[in-house]
Amino acid sequence: LFLLATCYYRSGKAYKAYRLLKGHSCTTPQCKYLLAKCCVDLSKLAEGEQILSGGVFNKQKSHDDIVTEFGDSACFTLSLLGHVYW
């Protein structure tokens, strides 16, 4: 699923990747990051923020929670969140 969504995204089809990931409710950190990246590209900033850091119904994640969840790719996740907040 992640590989197919990545192929869609890299070929300029962010909306197809978004629909694929959104439709399958993938919960891995890689899928969450790619889904949030698609949201940013599609100007769905609030949804991208909610995917990465929690939202209205979920407790807002702290910096440490994000680092724990995303591991080595946390720096990319935090950078994307910075882009959303900017």
Describe the overall structure.
By secondary structure, this protein is mostly helical. The protein has a single domain, classed as Serine Threonine Protein Phosphatase 5, Tetratricopeptide repeat (Alpha Horseshoe). The chain has six helices and no strands. The mean pLDDT is 91. This is CDC27 isoform 13. InterPro entries: TPR-like_helical_dom_sf. Pfam families: ANAPC3. It comes from Pan troglodytes.
CATH C-level class is: Mainly Alpha
Number of DSSP strands?
A: 0
Give start-end ranges of low-pLDDT stretches.
none
Level-2 CATH architecture:
Alpha Horseshoe
Let me know the CATH homologous superfamily: Tetratricopeptide repeat domain
What spatial form do the alpha-carbon principal axes imply? globular
Determine the number of helices (DSSP H or I, runs of at least 4 residues): 6
InterPro entries: TPR-like_helical_dom_sf
Pfam family, one: ANAPC3
Protein name: CDC27 isoform 13
